[in-house]
Structure formats: C-alpha cells, structure tokens
C-alpha cells in the first residue's frame, strides 16, 4: 500500500488506503483529520482533502480528486476518474461512475445512482458521466442518466429519473423528470455539516 496521510487521520485497521491496482501508481494522498472506517478501500492515484469521512465498506477508485469536508456513506462507490468539490455529502449506497463531476456544497441522498453509459454493452459510444453543479440536492433513489447536467442550486426529488439537463434553480420531479422553478420552501442554499 502506498499512501501519504495527513495529521490526525483515523484509519481503521480493516480499511485499505493506497490499494495498488497496477505497478505504476502514485500514492494516495489523504488530508488531515480524515476518518476511514472498516471495509473501505481507497485506490492509489487518489487525492483527498481535509476532513474526509467514510462510512463502512466505501470504495474510491483511481484518478479521483476529492476536496475538503466530504462525507462518503456506507457502501457508497466512486468508480474513478471523477472530481468532487468541497462540502459534499454522498449518503449510504450512492453510486458515482467514472467521468463524473460533482461541484461544491452538494448532497446526494441514499441510493442515488449516477450513470455514464447510455447503451450499456450494446454499443461503444464512450463514457460520459453527469455533471452535478454547486449547491444541488439529489433525493433518495434518484437515477441520473449519462452526460446530464443538473444546474446550480437545483433540487431533484426522491425517486426521480433525470434524463435531460436540469436548469439552475429548478425542481426536478417524476419519471422521466420534468422541471419547474424552485418553490419558496426549497429556494434556499444547502447547509451541509459533518
């Protein structure tokens, strides 16, 4: 295992930080005050900022950059080649595929699934993960299709299936999701704390 770990980090002996997936890797960089719980695996070629916290059995694959104050819930997966901003909460069971970008101050509810392959195993159209812009809230059990952008400060209601771009400051609801301006009770900013 190869890792550069910041001060005050707490890593469970049953976690792996710096998993060497091939012979030519760079060490994992894990910022200060991180907490990595049992069963979690973080690959090499990953850079993580300060105050990162995982649940149990989380996975972070190679070529991922994660900024400060990020929570990665139990059984959540970040499948590599992904960029995640600061003050982000990815709850239990969230799936983030490769080629995804997540901004700052974002909340992804339990079992939200982002996708990156429009025609899995049917054609070779290339992978294009979604873009989740700053201040977005995504409810539980939401599915976001490949190459979709969810605009700043939008709110995606639980269970929605997002098939097209969501404009900034919108509420997305339904299957497939339609969008409308944010209602007054949702027209606030996310307040994420660890």
Report low-confidence residues grouped into runs of 5 or more. none
Summed over residues and divided by their number, the pLDDT gives a mean of 95
Rg, nearest Å: 16 Å
Overall structural class, as computed from helix and strand content, comes to mainly beta
Report helical residue fraction.
Answer: under 10%
**How many β-strand runs?**
26
Shape descriptor reads globular
| Strand fraction | 25-35%
Write out the strand line-up for the largest beta sheet, numbering strands in chain order: 1-4-7-10-13-16-19-22
Characterize the main sheet: 8 strands, parallel
Order of helices and strands: EEEEEEEEEEEEEEEEEEEEEEEEEE
3D structure, described in words:
With 194 residues, the chain is mainly beta. The protein is 0% helix and 34% strand. It is globular.
Helices and strands in order:
Blueprint lengths: L2 E3 L4 E2 L4 E4 L8 E3 L4 E2 L4 E3 L2 E3 L4 E2 L4 E2 L3 E3 L3 E3 L4 E2 L4 E2 L3 E3 L4 E2 L4 E2 L4 E2 L4 E2 L16 E2 L4 E2 L4 E2 L4 E2 L4 E2 L4 E2 L7 E4 L4 E4 L13
Parallel strand pairs: 1-4, 2-5, 3-6, 4-7, 6-9, 7-10, 8-11, 9-12, 10-13, 11-14, 12-15, 13-16, 14-17, 16-19, 17-20, 18-21, 19-22, 20-23, 21-24, 23-25
Antiparallel strand pairs: 25-26
In short:
By secondary structure, the protein is an all-beta fold. The chain has strands at residues 3-5, 10-11, 16-19, 28-30, 35-36, 41-43, 46-48, 53-54, 59-60, 64-66, 70-72, 77-78, 83-84, 88-90, 95-96, 101-102, 107-108, 113-114, 131-132, 137-138, 143-144, 149-150, 155-156, 161-162, 170-173, 178-181. Strand 25 and strand 26 form a beta hairpin.
């Amino acid at each position: 295992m190869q890792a550069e770990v910041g001060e005050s980090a707490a890593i469970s002996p049953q976690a792996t930080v710096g998993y060497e997936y091939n012979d030519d890797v760079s060490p994992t960089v894990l910022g200060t005050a991180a907490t990595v719980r049992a069963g979690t695996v973080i690959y090499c070629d990953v850079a993580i900022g300060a105050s990162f916290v995982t649940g149990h059995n989380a996975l972070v694959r190679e070529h991922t950059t994660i900024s400060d104050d990020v929570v990665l819930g139990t059984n959540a997966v970040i499948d590599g080649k992904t960029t995640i901003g600061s003050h982000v909460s990815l709850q239990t069971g969230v799936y983030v595929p490769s080629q995804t970008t997540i901004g700052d101050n974002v909340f992804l509810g339990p079992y939200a699934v982002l996708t990156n392959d429009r025609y899995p195993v049917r054609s070779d159209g290339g992978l294009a993960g979604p873009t989740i812009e700053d201040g977005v809230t995504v409810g539980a059990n939401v599915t976001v299709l490949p190459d979709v952008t969810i605009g700043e400060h939008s709110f995606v209601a639980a269970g929605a299936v997002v098939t097209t771009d969501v404009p900034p400051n919108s509420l997305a609801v339904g299957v497939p999701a339609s969008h409308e301006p944010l209602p007054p009770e949702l027209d606030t900013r996310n307040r994420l704390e660890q």
